[in-house]
Design goal:
This protein has about 180 residues and is mainly α. The chain has 5 helices and 4 strands. It has one domain: Cobalamin adenosyltransferase-like (Hypothetical Protein Ta1238, Chain: A), CATH 1.20.1200. Helix 1 packs antiparallel against helix 4 and helix 3 packs parallel to helix 5.
Length: about 180
């Protein structure tokens, strides 16, 4: 692989536009750039989660998802491209089912927290939901890969289940909501 970024400071965005992988330039406020930014922020937060001590099934899933989010970013940077497919969606669904197997049924809402890894994962879940909203906003303006929209929806489910697993790891507990 050659050098992808040989020059970091380009000054090409100094007037409020940014380049897509196609060479086209769009406003930094464009829905596509907002979606790209939210996906990037989510990927960064997953990096924070991955710095924690995690059970191997959670670590394996989140590591794979980081790569898939990078694929999604590539897809978003090339309007009309399709990179995320049924395989990625099925992997997410499989992970949700597997991680949820040993969890007790929910009787109350769960508050973000419990321990550092769970709290970091809950933050990733909230960012995933924002990224999903951004993808849907983009889709309203310019239709995008429908599987990517489903992938984003499943990802917040996976992160919720992962946060529950992490809160209970090493004898920890989830924090249940109670009416005040």
């Amino acid at each position: 692989m050659g050098h992808r970024l040989s020059k970091i400071v380009t000054r090409t965005g100094d007037k409020g536009t940014t380049g897509l992988a196609t060479g086209d330039r769009v406003a930094k406020t464009h829905a596509r750039i907002r979606a790209l930014g939210d996906v990037d922020e989510l990927n960064s937060q997953l990096g924070v989660v991955l710095t924690q001590d995690l059970p191997e099934p959670v670590r394996k899933a989140l590591t794979r998802i980081q790569h898939q989010l990078f694929d999604l970013g590539g897809e978003l940077s090339m309007p009309g491209a399709v990179v995320v497919g049924e395989k990625q969606l099925m992997e997410l669904e499989r992970d949700v089912l597997q991680l949820n197997l040993d969890l007790p049924p929910l009787k109350e809402f769960v508050l973000p927290g419990g321990n550092a890894p769970a709290a970091a994962c809950h933050l990733a879940r909230a960012i995933a939901r924002r990224a999903e909203r951004s993808l849907w906003m983009l889709n309203e303006a310019e239709p995008i890969n429908p599987i990517s929209l489903r992938f984003a929806n499943r990802l917040s489910d996976l992160l919720f289940v992962s946060a529950r697993v992490l809160a209970r790891a090493d004898g920890g507990k989830e924090v249940s909501w109670r009416r005040t």
